[in-house]
Amino acid sequence: QQQVKQSPQSLIVQKGGISIINCAYENTAFDYFPWYQQFPGKGPALLIAIRPDVSEKKEGRFTISFNKSAKQFSLHIMDSQPGDSATYFCAASIWGNQGGKLIFGQGTELSVKP
Amino acid sequence: NAGVTQTPKFRVLKTGQSMTLLCAQDMNHEYMYWYRQDPGMGLRLIHYSVGEGTTAKGEVPDGYNVSRLKKQNFLLGLESAAPSQTSVYFCASSYNSRTGERELFFGEGSRLTVL
Question: What is the distance between the alpha carbons of residues B48 and A44, in angstroms, rounded to a whole number?
Fold first, then answer.
């Protein structure tokens, strides 16, 4: 029930296209859903996050869509650029409990071709 | 402002050897975490701490010990290294009680190989 399942494992998109990564969770107590971006040799860095009281959050070219009833959330990268090539992780946590520890998905390796 | 700093960045051990990974944060964060990253497995929580002098087990704690004697430091120890512990280890910290900030910040990782 603590798992977060992420798909696809890898994704190749042409420059200017839309990248879509999906995540699903089981624990309905999760109340914080961030996405992290990781470049090779670096630690993950927060990209964008959402709480379940909203269905969508947009920051620049990055959008999180959240479906509470389906227990799914997704990351959309509009106008994908080669500089977006990285590994993306979704995560979930119970914000006010247990030290806010994050449970991560398995990761998606995104490659944006010029 | 260095953020989260991990040492060492690389280490090669033989089976049965011991070692300690050091994590230091300068953001006055209350919470600290150790994750391991393996291909296709994402980041899995090993141990975490919600304050100085306190630690708790995460998803994969076996074979590891931790200590948080000072608020800014979180140590991860391997008493008897095994090849299954070959991984990239990430330390992270979060929650500034004064500002209320809860974002998780990661270090750049420590790559450990056990032969």
Answer: 17
pLDDT at A94: 83
User: What are the pLDDT digits (tens) for B8-50?
Assistant: 999 999 999 999 999 999 999 999 999 999 988 889 999 999 9
B4 chain-A contacts, CB cut-off 8 A: 43
The lowest-confidence range among A27-31, A98-102, B103-107 is A98-102
Q: Report the 10 Å Cβ neighbour count for B100.
A: 7
- By C-alpha distance, which of B4, B18, B74, B13 is closest to B46? B74
Residues of B at the A interface, defined by Cβ within 8 angstroms:
4, 31, 33, 35, 40-45, 48-50, 56, 58-59, 90, 92, 94-95, 102-104, 106-109
Q: Identify all chain B residues contacting A103, using CB atoms and an 8 Å cutoff.
A: 45, 59
Is the Cβ of A96 closer than 8 Å to some Cβ of chain B? Answer: no
Residue type, B98: R
